[in-house]
Amino acid sequence: MSNVSNEIRERLSLEQVVEHIRWSDGLVPAIVQDAETRQVLMMAYMNRESLKLSLESGETWFWSRSRQELWHKGATSGNVQTITSLKYDCDGDTLLVEVKPNGPACHTGEVTCFHNEIVGLPQKSVEHDGKEANANSAGSQAEGRFDVLAELESVIAERERERPEGAYTTYLFDKGVDKILKKIGEEASETIIAAKNKDNDELRLEVSDLMYHLLVLLQERKLPLDDIMAELSRRHERPRRD
């Protein structure tokens, strides 16, 4: 039985996709993204057969250029990826596969294959007025620091409305507030353990999980994130000086 959502089955068929794809030596790159966190997990290649298997099974299949064979993501590790959305770009030469991952995407055990950060990139800024340029740059960075929270809040609200089959957020909303609260308790405990272990890599992951589940709770209770931010702002208002 296919796990692909009704939306995918209705909007896409193998014939329709193949018609619009610009295949290069029979292959097309496929970018895999976490449907909940929006994090890019990996990039691999699909051919017509792996695309067909992906659509039929609802899980990601790819073509290995090194082994020259099909491979089912997670068949050995158990870290399968359940497809929630499948799209192609405007040029038809790249696929975007949104998934619900059942574990790390990278064979190293990292959540994403893109975990090697390039450091030392030049910082560009406007030079017309040193202080003003630095202030504007800092202000711009501050304004965009938490954009991901607003985006995630929007995605969670969409999941509650549309309830896509197979999505973890759908599962939480279907189970109700008690399940959401249980997950918050679990993630809070794991956050404490990571902090006590002085493991910042693990702490980063656990805090991210905790914040995600808190956003789900706010959506379930219809309490906007803006209200939380406004409350924090009120608490930290500095007294005005005459």
TrEMBL record:
Where's the Phosphoribosyl-AMP cyclohydrolase domain?
A: 42-115
Q: Which UniProt keywords apply?
A: Amino-acid biosynthesis, ATP-binding, Cytoplasm, Histidine biosynthesis, Hydrolase, Multifunctional enzyme, Nucleotide-binding
The chemistry this enzyme catalyses reads: 1-(5-phospho-beta-D-ribosyl)-5'-AMP + H2O = 1-(5-phospho-beta-D-ribosyl)-5-[(5-phospho-beta-D-ribosylamino)methylideneamino]imidazole-4-carboxamide; 1-(5-phospho-beta-D-ribosyl)-ATP + H2O = 1-(5-phospho-beta-D-ribosyl)-5'-AMP + diphosphate + H(+)
Q: Name one GO biological process term.
A: L-histidine biosynthetic process
Q: What InterPro entries does the entry give?
A: His_synth_HisIE, HisE, PRA-CH, PRib-ATP_PPHydrolase-like, PRib_AMP_CycHydrolase_dom, PRib_AMP_CycHydrolase_sf
Q: Name one GO cellular component term.
A: cytoplasm
Localization in the cell: Cytoplasm
Q: Which pathway or pathways does this protein act in? A: Amino-acid biosynthesis; L-histidine biosynthesis; L-histidine from 5-phospho-alpha-D-ribose 1-diphosphate: step 2/9; Amino-acid biosynthesis; L-histidine biosynthesis; L-histidine from 5-phospho-alpha-D-ribose 1-diphosphate: step 3/9
Care to name a GO molecular-function term for this sequence?
ATP binding
Q: Where is this region: Phosphoribosyl-AMP cyclohydrolase?
A: 1-148
Record carries keyword Manganese: no
Where it mainly occurs, coarsely classed, is cytoplasm
Region listing for Phosphoribosyl-ATP pyrophosphohydrolase, in residue ranges: 149-242
In the record, the note on similarity to other proteins reads: In the N-terminal section; belongs to the PRA-CH family.
Protein name listed in UniProt: Histidine biosynthesis bifunctional protein HisIE
Organism expressing this protein natively: Paenibacillus xylanilyticus
Its ancestry begins with: Bacteria, Bacillati, Bacillota, Bacilli, Bacillales
